[in-house]
Amino acid sequence: MARPAPRSLYVVYTNPLGDEEDALHAWYEDVHIPDSLEAGLFDSVARYRATLDGDARFLTLWGCDYTSEEEALAAVRPVALGLRDRGRIEVVQEVVFQQFVFLDPTVDAPDVREASELVALHSTWSRPASVAAFDAWLTKGAGADRLPSGPIARYGVPDPSRKALVLSDGATARDPWPPDDCAEGLPPFGDPTPIFEGGSLAPGPAALEADELARREAMSDVWATQWERISLR
Q1: Can you give the residue range of the structural domain that contains 225?
Q2: How many angstroms separate the CA atoms of 71 and 111, rounded?
Q3: CA–CA separation, 202 vs 90, rounded Å?
Q4: Quick check: helix, strand or coil at residue 60?
Q5: Looking at the domain assignment, is residue 1 inside a domain?
C-alpha cells in the first residue's frame, strides 16, 4: 500500500552537463542521496526521466516534512554548506529550477512518488495569477476527461508567489495526452530560491529575455510533463 503523500517536496529539474549523464546518476545514487538522507534533511527520494523532449531531462522529488520555505531553508542550508565544504557537491548537472512545495491539506492522496509513471501539471510559476485559471482548468468538464485516472496529490506555494503542482499516476493517462488546451513542457518558472545563498555551484539556464518570457507566459495557464521513475528510496 502506498504511503501517505509527504507534507512537502523539494522539486528539482536538471540536465546533465555535456556527456556527464553517467556521472550525474553515479553522484546522485552513490553520494548525494545517501548524504542527504543520512543528514535527516529528507525522508525519501524519487528520481524520474522525462519521456518527452523538454527543458529538463530529469526530475527529483525529495520528500520532507517542512511547513514553509523558511523552515526548509533554515534546516537544509547549513548542512548543504557543510557538504559543499567537504567536496560532496559535484558539478555534474545544470539545475533548471528548484522549489519547495507544500501539500494541500484538503487533498487526501496516496504517495504518487510510488507510481512508475508520473504526470506533472504546473501553473505558470512565474505568474502567480495563473493559479486561478489553472484551478478552473482542473475542474472544467468531467475530471476523468481532464486528468489521468489514479492517485492525485496537489502541492503549491502560498501567497504571494503562488504556484500550483498536481502529480498524478501517468500509467493510466488517456490518449492523446496532454489535452490540446494545455502546453506540453515546463512552465516559465520565474526567479529561483537557491539552496546556497549567492547561487548554486551548478549552472542554471540562461534567463529568458523579457519578450520571450512574456510570450511563454501567455502560451498557457496549464503545463504538462510526463516522467518515468528511475529510482526510489
Answers
A1: 8-232
A2: 22
A3: 8
A4: strand
A5: no
